[in-house]
């Protein structure tokens, strides 16, 4: 297998893929925070999806639906902070996936990434980590919306969840973001080729 990556560069490519998958999975799955609508009926929230929520049945009565779904439109997301989080984390996760594919392709294709190109990819990995981190930091500002209030016993407010708790998607996002930052530094030593090696 021909590659222009160093051993550290191959580790960088692998960790880039792991971090991108962690961020994308954490973004898509709605298990950021966990609360209870009624005793023993857990509900989960992400920035644009939720699981186990109340709906009106055919008789006009409220029943609890055990399913996950997204909000019907972007405007239906219950907080402008969650809308901003959706955009920032979505763009950051998408960018990290694109960069991970590029890094992994460099494991198989000679001359795909040289030293300067690896540093550019590292810069964009840093940028995607910043986008995700800012999005995650904005998310708690929306904890005062009515849906979270209902699930957290009316005790949630910005940066205070009350009896609700973080769930595993939030941990995936934080871990993936930290790994993206590590990858952005590893990129400096990822390639053994110098610019101009192709002439």
Automatic annotation (TrEMBL):
Transmembrane segment boundaries: 87-113, 120-139, 168-188
Q: Name one GO cellular component term.
A: membrane
Q: Which compartments is it annotated to reside in?
A: Membrane
| Residues making up the signal peptide according to the UniProt record | 1-20
> Taking the first listed entry, what is the main subcellular location of this protein, grouped into a coarse class?
membrane
Keywords recorded for this protein, A-Z: Membrane, Signal, Transmembrane, Transmembrane helix
What membrane topology is given? Multi-pass membrane protein
Q: Which InterPro entries match?
A: LHFPL
Q: Does the keyword Membrane apply?
A: yes
The name under which this protein is listed is: LHFPL tetraspan subfamily member 6 protein
């Amino acid at each position: 297998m021909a590659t222009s990556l160093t051993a550290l560069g191959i580790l960088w490519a692998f960790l880039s893929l792991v971090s991108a998958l962690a961020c994308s999975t954490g973004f898509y799955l709605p298990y950021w925070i966990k609360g209870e609508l009624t005793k023993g009926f857990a509900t989960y929230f992400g920035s644009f999806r939720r699981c186990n929520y109340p709906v009106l049945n055919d008789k006009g009565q409220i029943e609890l639906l055990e399913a996950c779904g997204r909000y019907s439109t972007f405007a239906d997301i219950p907080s402008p902070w969650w809308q901003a989080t959706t955009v920032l984390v979505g763009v950051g996760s998408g960018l990290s996936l694109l960069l991970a594919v590029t890094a992994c392709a460099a494991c198989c294709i000679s001359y795909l990434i040289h030293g300067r190109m690896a540093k550019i990819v590292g810069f964009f990995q840093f940028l995607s980590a910043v986008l995700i981190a800012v999005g995650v930091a904005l998310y708690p500002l929306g904890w005062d919306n009515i849906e979270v209030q209902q699930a957290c016993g009316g005790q949630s407010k910005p940066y205070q969840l009350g009896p609700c708790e973080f769930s595993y998607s939030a941990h995936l996002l934080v871990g993936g973001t930290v790994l993206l930052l590590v990858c952005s530094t590893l990129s400096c030593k990822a390639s053994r080729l110098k610019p101009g090696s192709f002439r």
